[in-house]
Design brief:
- The chain is α/β, with parallel strands linked by helices.
- It has a single domain, classed as Glutaredoxin, CATH 3.40.30.10.
- The protein is built from 6 helices and 7 strands, in the order E-E-E-H-E-H-E-H-E-E-H-H-H.
- The strands form 2 sheets. A 5-stranded mixed beta sheet has the order 5-4-3-6-7, with helices on one face.
- Strand 4, helix 2 and strand 5 form a beta-alpha-beta unit.
- The longest helix has 30 residues.
- The C terminus is likely disordered.
Length: 235
């Protein structure tokens, strides 16, 4: 359990060079999840009638907090799209919000999203072992878009709301098509966004973030360069 629900953030906990999970054009893989009351839910329950945006989040994720204002705007712009969030492991656990050790503790943390980050999207919670999170790529702030048929129309290893807006504009128009761009650099969180997320984790969450962020950004930059190279040669 320590391998997934790590006690201290380190860049090596994330495999940024191998973005697993269903790709654009492929059918979704169902997830066994929980609602905030601890009742079992499946992702398939939410698919099939309208486009769905699924973003992975946690209380201590600065990238999630940075993206929140623009995600709220997208909700207003696209009322016919269902916006979901999937609560995964703590991106930056610390003394105040430690790594999850029980499902009950994880559900409590997920319920705090509404109060601490003013989250009003439907919140689903992954199991304690993070199976669904790992099956879909395992990164802290991914985004998937599913079309009305349950196929993956777009996915990104890091949520970039500006590009997501472009995707949703096309997906909800008559000229719908797939988007095969998978890789994006993480949003660079403002000091305020980083503080809002990391203070929930505590001092060690902040310290681990400061130590590890440069390495993670370098790895993501390198992966983006590799992605562009593969695209140019048709790989």
């Amino acid at each position: 359990m320590e391998t997934y629900n790590y006690s201290h953030f380190k860049p090596e906990h994330y495999s940024v060079s191998d973005f697993g999970g269903p790709k654009a054009g492929q059918p979704f893989e169902d997830m066994e999840l929980f609602d905030l009351d601890g009742k079992r839910q499946n992702l398939s329950r939410y698919l099939g009638t309208k486009p769905v945006v699924l973003e992975t989040v946690s209380l201590t994720c600065p990238s999630y907090v940075q993206a929140l204002p623009k995600m709220r705007n997208l909700q207003k712009l696209y009322p016919d799209v269902l916006f979901l969030v999937l609560y995964v492991r703590e991106a930056h656990p610390g003394g105040l919000t430690p790594a999850h050790r029980t499902l009950g503790g994880k559900l409590i943390a997920a319920r705090q999203l509404g109060m601490l980050h003013r989250e009003d999207r439907t919140i689903l919670v992954d199991g304690l072992d993070g199976k669904s999170h790992r099956d879909y790529g395992g990164l802290p702030n991914m985004v998937y878009v599913f079309d009305r048929d349950g196929q993956v129309a777009f996915r990104a290893d890091w949520n970039q709301p500006d590009h997501l807006a472009y995707v949703l504009k096309s997906l909800t128009s008559e000229d719908r098509h797939l988007f095969r761009r998978d890789y994006f650099s993480p949003l660079s969180p403002s000091i305020w966004s980083a503080w809002k997320a990391l203070r929930i984790g505590g001092f060690y969450a902040m310290w681990d973030f400061i130590k590890g962020l440069p390495s993670l950004l370098r790895l993501c930059k390198l992966n983006n360069l590799n992605y562009h190279h593969r695209a140019l040669i048709g790989g």
